[in-house]
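Repro:
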Amino acid sequence: MVALAAVGVLVLALLGTCRLWLPPHPYDFPGEQWARTTPAAAGFDRAGLDLFAERTAGVGCLVYRGRIFRDWGTQSNRGDIASIVKALYVHVLLQAVEEGRIESLDAPVAEHMRVLHKLPQGAGRNMTWRQLATQTACYGVSEAPGEAFNYSDYQMALLVDALVLHVYGSSFRTAQTDILDPLIFDPLQCEDEPRVIPSLRVRMSARDLARFGLLYLAEGRWGRRRLLSRKHARLVRDNSITKNIDRTRQNETPMLRPGRTLGSGHNLEDSMNSFGYCWWVNGIRDDGERVLPDAPPDAYGAIGHGGRHALILIPSMDLVVCWLTGLGDPTPHRFSCDGRPRVNECLRLLMAARVDDAQAFE
């Protein structure tokens, strides 16, 4: 019996390590550099992809099952990924839950950030991590946490600061080496040296950002390692919290001082029934139309400046689509307004470049 008990302990110990060593995956995960394949092998017409790349502009790449099959622009160029950075920090949040640093997504943020108790009751003092990640915390507006959708760069800055300063005990100066390098950039072997800038936004290349996209396309796996649980990797596509929720009336209430924003202000976007955990899913808007009507229904993406920067995943096609400083217009747009049709037009051209489905998925 003692021997059997010892064996049981050993098995449990081995199971605990299996999170980091898994059977082979059908995708090819890049090492120091990406592997490449041809447009034909990915199921696309080369001339059609040329039209897509011309319309999209900027710098970008297309990845099929872990291999780049089309890129354009100077691949090593790093740019500020704008609101796409929110998806990176949600990843940090999910890692913090899995590491036990945070009890759960539904735990109050104030358990770690005690200064929130200085806020009035109606100003978001009782907000949870889940509400921050889904833009329903109502920080700085009059609704109670969970009552309204408020796409706000003030509450995203609060999420980032709570994680960096209070959960991980780091600082603005050391956030990259303490958090983002070990949790994201190093495991993904990013090749163009992403940089965290003083505001805690991030500059990185399109092909490095595509690695982050591939991690989520593979549902948290990277090669034979699991960097994030499948449950949490799939969670970012869940828009149930923001579906049919009212948008804030934007009656402003006190925030912590000095107030910090990750870029802009309150009430920046409509949820379009399609906002997940800082990713946009291809949901159905109030008018009955999908957010991206010319893309497959399972498409979802992290979007910056209304589509000038985009990381779009299409699981049914094993595709990562990524571009930075694209769409040929330096002016930021709202994704829920001008940006959505512009992104959809690019994806319409991409879908038009597909060859016969039987070829594409052999």
